[in-house]
Queue: 3 jobs
Job 1
Amino acid sequence: MKVRIGVAAGVGATDDSCGYLRLVDALDDLGYDSIWVPDVITTSVFDPIAALSIAAGRCDRLKVGTHLIVPGRDPVRLAKELATLDVLSNGRLLLLGVLGLNQPDELDAQSVVAAERSAMLEESLHIMRTLWAGEPLCFEGRFYNYKNVELAVHPKQDPLEVWLGGQVPASLRRCGRIGEGWMPGLCSPDEAAAMREVITSEAQAAGREIDDEHFGMNLSWVTGPMSDKLLASIEARRPGFDPTHTIGCGASGLAERIHAFLDVGFSKFVIRPAEPPEDWSEAVESVSEVLCLQT
């Protein structure tokens, strides 16, 4: 397996341009595979497409990735924006398509109906992939309608892959039908392995195959005991879940978590501090020992 480890630049990492650029430089210098900017509309985290454009222009090796909210965006414009970023980064763009958070403020900002987001995601992916392939787009759907649209800008990567997340049965089936990889969070290694089986079975039923290398996991680390605030936030997101499955203490604890998922066939990891650190560059250096696991 090709093991790769990237870092998600969450709250605090993008509070100012200088701190963000220091983090980009640190990740590149230390040898991390990628920087990820999550897409959360109402927080202080920078817009991912703009922020990743800066990162891609600052270094030649570091890949740039995002957990990108697709519903609520015009898919034709989004297709061109992402194709442009992939060209400008010389094919270093990594994409994980997500529905967005269920928080009321985020849903309002997306200007979408929560129950319609899954269908919007599926229509959008079909539209973007058609345009990225250089084909004329003629599409009549539930949410989008286009007549003979073409893009003159196409991704450097052929194809530009879109991985998916999600752990409910419908999300797993969707990933099997239309996803090119899967990267969830807040699940144990055994649960992840079982859900992977659902995805691969659905893919086979649809007459397709997902590369064995295209399964990853979002992991976190702490530097001491987990705070009550952190534990409460995890309990709210997934009641009864044991957070030690995905959160390690320091570099050694994080390495143990990575090994546990490697043992069940997951090889791509996006890591982040479980709580915002005072200095992001120092934080990623403090756990950089895990980079010896990259192959």
Job 2
Amino acid sequence: MAAIDLAPGSPAWTRLITASKVAAILGVSPENWESKRSLWLKMRGDIPWDDGRNVAEKSRGHYLENGLIDWWADQHPEIARVRRQPIVTNRRLPWAAATPDAIGTGIGAPLYLDAKTSRDDAEWGTPGTDEVPAYYAAQLTWAMHLSHGRRGMAVKTAHIALLTQFLDLREYVIEYDAELGHDIEDQCRAFLRSLDDPDAIPPVDGSQATWRAEKRRHPDIDLDKTVELDGDLAQAFVDIKAREADVRAVQSRLREVMGDARLATYGGVTIARRQPNAHGVTLMPVAKAIPTTKEQHAA
């Protein structure tokens, strides 16, 4: 029997609800990776799959994955065997699959393992806990959920081996929550059914993924076609230029105040972070809201 190719972008992968897609369906995928709307458009074939985004990050994870798994395994002698890239399916859900980085077996119950790298350790909580980014928790919960079918291994624990920004190895543990697993299944099934209804497209949001998807959605231009806008959208678009100037002014003021500092805080909360990129230093927003006066006093 030929092996199933579930590499991202393969024909089989595009038709299945895999772990990375679950995060987008739930609305917890990083906004520059995927949104519910961008995934919906791709799975319907309305836009192509890979737009070449996050290549560096994907490459980094690919090259470091095996080393991280080996490092983790060295610290777990109770794990007699580590099998890489298992394909997890469930006969009850022929439209679903997951590919955790590894499965460990030995003394005790089997477990799934994902190897991750971090550019910002602030996204991660206390080692040994399940305080991990929501999109990673969703992916591993999905893999464990699929294993609980007939003839499945019924995996109840998943580990994450994390290489921190300071090159330390941390470990996080996620326990299977059956109620959450079934809720995720219901949402994924509803999403899959919606693909047959062109009017069921998820609403527009402010994510980069949706913005990129809409840019690619209509590559042709009908020179004879005109669309009448409603007043709110027309005014919002006219106001964009003014808002862009305001954004640049705020960013410039913040850069001036920060100087060569890495972090900017307010009331004990990190507001912005400077980090290097290929073109110099970029300014990254961190907090979604600033603390209230009461919260500041509590801090």
Job 3
Amino acid sequence: MNIPQFDDEELRLYAEFMLDQLRKTDGFWFLGVENAFSYDAAIKANEEVWHTMGRITARDIRRSFSIKEKGLQGLYRFFRYFPWAMISGYEIDYKDNEIVVSVPHCPSQEARLKKGLGEYGCKRMHFLFFQSIIQELDRGLKVECLFAPPDPHSSDVFCKWRFTMDQEGSSG
């Protein structure tokens, strides 16, 4: 890649720009599949893509940012670099035995609502995505969906996820 030199402010602005491009590409890709084929086809394709990307994203972040920790500590460090945590403003509550991720701002769902399309059922897609992330980081991690569309939710949070270690602990 040919990445130009940026000062700190330019780099921050460029990172924001790239995250916004990622978000828009994801949204328009889904809408394109939905319009060309069907809502169900878009959901199925989305689940397949995100399931694959979870593993790739976890592997790339772990390697790029030298995340050596396993378990909840490794997952917590992963979220620091995870693009969608920045895009959606993840609220991450890390306690001794769990990480709870709340998503107060979901650009995809907000855009659909603004256009009168209604929320799409993203629960399974995100479950598969998070499952593939934790399988790559530490097979001893578990993910549980507390709620996500199509589940009912309050207006200030779209979904909430809990990550824990299974009883046997980290298995690498």
